[in-house]
Amino acid sequence: MVTIEPLTGSEPDLYDLLVLGGLPKRAEDLAQGLAPRDFLYGAHDDDGVMLGMAFGLKSDYFHHHTVNNLLVHPDHRRAGIGTTLMNYIIEEARRVGHGEVILDLHPARPAEHRPFYSTLGFEMVDSSRARLVLG
Ligand SMILES: CC(C)(COP(=O)(O)OP(=O)(O)OC[C@H]1O[C@@H](n2cnc3c(N)ncnc32)[C@H](O)[C@@H]1OP(=O)(O)O)[C@@H](O)C(=O)NCCC(=O)NCCS
């Protein structure tokens, strides 16, 4: 089973995951740079191993959650972890009354994950973003 929970940013295995995903930012930098409106969630298995993460911003002004980085460990893709992370964020956005969730797409391959985000109900806004309007 996969569990989603907030991270502080200083988890040692977060940095390993970021490097594996080609996002070589130090986890400590992420911890220091986290603003109150940022969110950082981790997906763990039953043994506490981090299998995925999502980072983004909650904007009460724009009434949306924006997911800047969504990353699943390369050895654990296509097992529903990305979907579980996104569903968690969608539920969080609903819970605080936000009207939409924006997903930043990979800048070099914006259409590559279209099956992933369209299955979740997201539509492409432009070459860099997809959006889910919450009913
Ligand atoms: C995109 C990403 C987060 C998906 O995570 P995941 O845990 O593998 O996704 P899921 O297992 O929840 O996938 C759900 C469905 O989305 C679709 N999907 C996911 N990845 C896909 C891919 N690479 N190609 C085509 N369809 C894909 C499939 O329909 C899949 O269902 P299926 O496995 O039953 O066919 C992961 O591939 C990743 O970390 N990529 C690198 C980082 C990245 O590009 N992030 C930006 C995402 S927009």
UniProtKB/TrEMBL annotation:
Every N-acetyltransferase domain range: 2-135
InterPro entries, per the entry: Acyl_CoA_acyltransferase (IPR016181), Bact_Acetyltransf (IPR050832), GNAT_dom (IPR000182)
CDD domains referenced in this protein's UniProt entry, alphabetically: NAT_SF (cd04301)
Keywords noted in UniProt: Acyltransferase, Transferase
Pfam families assigned: Acetyltransf_1
Entry protein name: Acetyltransferase (GNAT) family protein
One Gene Ontology term of the molecular function aspect: acyltransferase activity, transferring groups other than amino-acyl groups
